[in-house]
């Protein structure tokens, strides 16, 4: 359901769109804004609800500031972190939205703020009041809250991490060989988002082998280089380390690395397999290097610092995607607000070497090219892709993605019939699917250029997928506002890309699931190890039934539907083999 400019998905509010509060000189008039529509790209913003739920100290009131009681402050603070902080920043210094610090808000005044929050703006601010999302009293409360100093949520350093750290099964008590009969390489770790759980599903039998308790609104899973260990990260920054050799697999260690986090990865360079793990936080802005087998936190590094372009201090640069280099003992850590890609060398953690690459602001998600050397990362709010050479440790290029708000997931690699090897992304903001040349040796003229764009079903796409053995490219559109489009997937035949206007086939995955209730958003295709079938989540809200639909890649027909009451809000799926080997 899309309400008042925010996407309410699977029962979770994804957050507000970017605002331009202080950009407009006069309060917006209802007549100007009634028509404005929020784009899917704008709807997809972080909701910092873990932070919102934490007790935060109320800043003192300056003379002339509106006075908020403790109860009013707590309520406003919660609303701010859940709905506003994703765009305007935890400290209100601005991110994709404008800053809302008191020096600016006081110039605008109470009436302006109240009206802006009520009616929103065509620039992207949702109409929180007139949509009914916030009551009149809540809007007035938020306007008063914004006239006060920002609240500063607590830091989370090594001490707090160590206090949260649990080694449930010490390394010495773990098996020395695989004890269970699971086909680990073809297991799928499936995020059960609103349950705070991960399901382990067998890729052949489609049986749910196990449900693991994980962090709040668990986000992604990554596998160690050997495939033995599975790491999950919750939005509350809780990491679970699962030993897949045990019978049954179980969580062997836990750690919290902050208050809000989204990414985790493990060392993959030769000689360092399974040795280190890394996780990145949104709050506090930091990344943490850990022992791969126990999650013992070894080094906490702040990301606060200068923006790459204007070289201004940013107090809360969030850590977005992290991947492990195959060419150097390094993690590739992408920092949103400062626009830097950090190559963090883990060879000598005591004397940490970090190469800071000037990439682009608002880095989000990305993946490698098929050789594993070049990393493509979407600077989504800038509509650009930055390409990093992880062998030479340098920026290759930043280019326009060809569409609005690129969101590749890890992207898709295939041999284009005309242009040679390409990496592909779809877009949140429109129907464009872009193919970027990725072979600087044999196809030099095409390398690092958008060689072709094709039109998919519409905007609201989050993930594009193929497999080296597949002849198809699958594009989801879970955030499209049209129910038929958000519950289906477009499939392009690679061989048809030579046509002037390549056509796609629509797979009605939501309908195939047999579920009739809910929005049935279809999200994130993931191939099995063989590369002959692709799994899609049919994502309803927590109180409704969800499912996973397995599609035969050759015939593009439905093969199996996994329906089980334990499959609560399934979203991301991570096949062990494909994830540990970066096959996509
Ligand atoms: Fe994600 C990856 C952040 C909302 C499903 N998501 C990522 C990554 C980041 C990120 C930084 C890259 C991790 C990496 O590679 O190391 N996601 C965010 C947000 O900030 C955002 C927009 C809002 C929020 O408050 O969290 C957000 N993400 C979502 C969802 O609503 C999705 C669709 C459903 C869910 O489970 O939460 C979702 N994100 C995913 C998935 C991946 C991901 C499935 C990994 C894709 C892959 O193929 O690797």
From TrEMBL:
**Which GO terms of the cellular component aspect does the record hold?**
periplasmic space
Location in the cell: Periplasm
What protein name is recorded for this chain?
Nitrite reductase
Native organism taxonomy:
Bacteria, Pseudomonadati, Pseudomonadota, Alphaproteobacteria, Hyphomicrobiales
Cofactor(s) named in the record:
heme; heme c
- Region annotated Disordered, chain positions: 20-67
The EC code for this enzyme is 1.7.2.1, 1.7.99.1
Assembly, in brief, is: Homodimer.
Where in the sequence does UniProt note compositional bias of the Polar residues kind?
Answer: 36-48
Report the leader peptide range: none
Where is the major localization of this protein? periplasm
Molecular function via GO: electron transfer activity; heme binding; hydroxylamine reductase activity; metal ion binding; nitrite reductase (NO-forming) activity
What is catalyzed by this enzyme? A + NH4(+) + H2O = hydroxylamine + AH2 + H(+); nitric oxide + Fe(III)-[cytochrome c] + H2O = Fe(II)-[cytochrome c] + nitrite + 2 H(+)
Which top EC class is given?
A: oxidoreductase
Q: Where is the Cytochrome c domain?
A: 64-150
Q: What keywords is this UniProt entry annotated with?
A: Electron transport, Heme, Iron, Metal-binding, Oxidoreductase, Periplasm, Signal, Transport
